[in-house]
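Protocol step 4 of 5: obtain the predicted structure for the target chain.
Materials: sequence only (see below). No template structures provided, no constraints applied. The aim of this step is simply to have a reference model before the mutagenesis design in step 5. Sequence pasted as it appears in the construct record:
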Amino acid sequence: MTNVRTLTAPSPTAATPTPHAHRHRLRAVAPDEALPSPATAPGAGAPRHGAPSVAELLHSGATWLPAPQHNLPALPGQPPMVGYLVLVPAEQAATPQPTAGPPAPPPTAPTGDEIVRIDPERRTAQVQGRPLDLTYLEFELLAHLVAHPHRVHTRDQLVTTVWGYGHVGDGRTVDVHVARLRRKLGAAHRSSIVTVRRVGYKYVPGI
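Step 4 output (structure tokens):
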């Protein structure tokens, strides 16, 4: 059974790691797996039996040392293991790839018609290409009306949807904001926000 761990070895001359600090890769081997001798280290000639499996762990420029016994895992019911340390220069170690997160939600498409255009992502509104200078609540109210053309909204529904459940207010708040929106839409398009008497408001494109 193989157990591999990777740890950072501190520089022998400094308390903090240096750019040339080595990383140790520890591989535990079974007692019947032959260990390479110093003569069979990389570049030292043909390896003995068992050395090919060792070479698979070695990067270019890596060296190996006998592993301290206390660094080897003890497997229940298995004989003790022997092993070695492979020292790999940090600049040659594989860089871990960042884990990909969940895909980003697709951007919200602009809504509206040929007269009024709403871009929810940029939070911009235009009337026939002319940008509107809207407050936060004015934008939310217009965007909601434009997203549901011809639908009649009561004042209470608009307060709940645009202002939120925790808002304390009445239908007069909606009336004030509708009046402001109509002024900003201009005389040519103010009538696109239609008053439904004794009920509320609706947006009718192209009026």
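Step 4 remarks: The chain is about 20% helix and 25% strand. The radius of gyration is 36 Å.
Proceed to step 5.
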